Amino acid sequence: MPPCGITETLSDVESVRVVHSIAEDGEFVYIGTNLPSEYSGSVYTKKLKGAVAKAKANASQGIPEMIEIATNGVFEENRKKKHGHDAKNGWYRYDTRFGLPVYGADGEISGYNIFHARLLIRHAGSGKKYLYDVMEIKKETSKSCQAEALPGEKPIS
C-alpha cells in the first residue's frame, strides 16, 4: 500500500486513472474516468450559482489534497435504484475543505476564501471506492478562519 498522499497511476477494468489515500483512515479513493462528467454535470452542480459555482469549478485542481485531508467518513446505503450497479456497496461521505486565493487591486494574493465541502464516494462491487462528486460546498464566513496570505505561498487546495 502506498503511504498517505502518494499518487500512483493505475490501470484496471474500471478505467482508473489515479488513487489517493485519506490520511485519517488510510482508505484509498480512486479517480475513475467518469468523475469529470459527474463533477461538472451532476444535479447538484447544475443548481449552483455565483461564488459557490465558481468555487466548485476552481476546487477541481485541489482534489488530491481534498481527499488526503478528508475526515469523518460516514457510510450510507443506496437511495436510488439507478446506482445499484455502480455503487453496489453503498456510499461514503467525508468532510473536507479547500481554499481559493483572493487577489488585491495590485494583483497580489491578499488572503484566501475557505470553503467546506463533502466528498461523495461510491463503493463499487469490486470493493474499490471512487470519488463521485464534491457537494454541499459552503464558504466559511468566520473572519478568524480565513487564512492570511504569506508572501510566496500557494493556496491550500
Characteristics:
157 residues, alpha+beta, disordered N terminus, 4-stranded antiparallel sheet
The fraction of residues assigned to DSSP E strands is 35-45%
| Backbone CA Rg | 16 Å
Helix content range of the residues, please? Answer: 10-25%
Describe the sheet with the most strands: 4 strands, antiparallel
Shape: globular
- Compute the number of helices: 4
Our count of domains comes out at: 1
Q: Let me know the average pLDDT.
A: 80
Structural class: alpha+beta
Which sequence of SSEs, written as H and E, runs from N to C?
EEEHHHHEEEE
The overall strand count is: 7
In which order are the strands of the major sheet placed? 4-5-6-7
**Low-confidence runs of at least 5 consecutive residues:** 1-15
N- to C-terminal distance: 24 Å
In words, what does this structure look like?
This protein has 157 residues and is an alpha+beta fold. It has one domain. Helices cover 18% and strands 37% of the residues. The radius of gyration is 16 Å and the shape is globular. It starts with 7 loop residues before the first strand and ends in an 18-residue tail after the last strand.
